[in-house]
């Protein structure tokens, strides 16, 4: 029997990549591709798939809400998160909501088809860096994560300009610098210049670290 897969992703580049991975595997069947959380919930309720691939940075509602809906109403559906967000808040929230796998887009998510098969076989594919963080929490006996705290009204102003914040949000979705340039109507070289400034201001050295630090600071 084939495994039906619903893809919930709003970035065309990743929509295509994930769809191609599913369509190329004879053991998988593409149930649908949607770009919003509400559309995902509608698809889930209309015809629940065996597996749902979901990004967390959706344009309408939080991907965690989609995961929670799937876990409550369609527990037979395995949920695989594929996202740029690798911080504790997103990881723990997704797992607590019901995700059974968690892959990072910028850390070599690995063959999507293989991860889906692993899920259906009872496994939980997790990017190595995420697995290490989860294990570390258990080692130190960390208490369950609390809800994200709102940024205090008297919090320090963002170190990033509006343009830098916009570029970082797009980068958090896994977009290439060329694509970001097209969306923001600037050249890829200018995007790179902005990214270097973002790295310097946040004291980081990679896209994943920038997304993590910005998330911790409440900038995303």
Automatic annotation (TrEMBL):
Keyword Transcription: yes
Residues with 4-aspartylphosphate modification: 55
Protein name as it appears in the record: DNA-binding NarL/FixJ family response regulator
Domain HTH luxR-type: 153-218
GO MF annotations in UniProt: DNA binding
The entry's keywords: DNA-binding, Phosphoprotein, Transcription, Transcription regulation
Domain spans labelled Response regulatory: 4-120
Keyword GTP-binding: no
């Amino acid at each position: 029997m084939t495994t039906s897969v619903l893809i919930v992703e709003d970035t065309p580049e990743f929509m295509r990549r994930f769809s191609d991975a599913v369509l190329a595997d004879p053991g998988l069947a593409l149930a649908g591709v949607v770009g919003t959380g509400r559309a995902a919930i509608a698809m889930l309720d209309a015809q629940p798939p065996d597996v749902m691939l979901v990004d967390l940075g959706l344009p309408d509602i939080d991907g965690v809400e989609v995961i929670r809906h799937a876990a409550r109403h369609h527990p037979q559906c395995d949920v695989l998160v594929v996202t740029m967000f690798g911080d504790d808040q997103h990881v723990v929230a997704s797992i607590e909501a019901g995700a059974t796998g968690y892959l990072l887009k910028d850390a070599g998510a690995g063959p999507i088809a293989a991860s889906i098969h692993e899920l259906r076989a009872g496994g939980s594919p997790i990017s190595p860096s995420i697995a290490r963080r989860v294990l570390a929490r258990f080692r130190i006996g960390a208490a369950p994560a609390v809800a994200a705290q709102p940024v205090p009204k008297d919090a320090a102003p963002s170190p990033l300009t509006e343009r830098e914040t916009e570029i970082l949000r797009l980068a958090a979705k896994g977009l290439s610098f060329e694509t970001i340039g097209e969306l923001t109507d600037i050249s890829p070289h200018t995007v790179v210049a902005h990214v270097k400034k973002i790295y310097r201001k946040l004291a980081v050295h990679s896209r994943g670290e920038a997304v993590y630090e910005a998330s911790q600071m409440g900038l995303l």
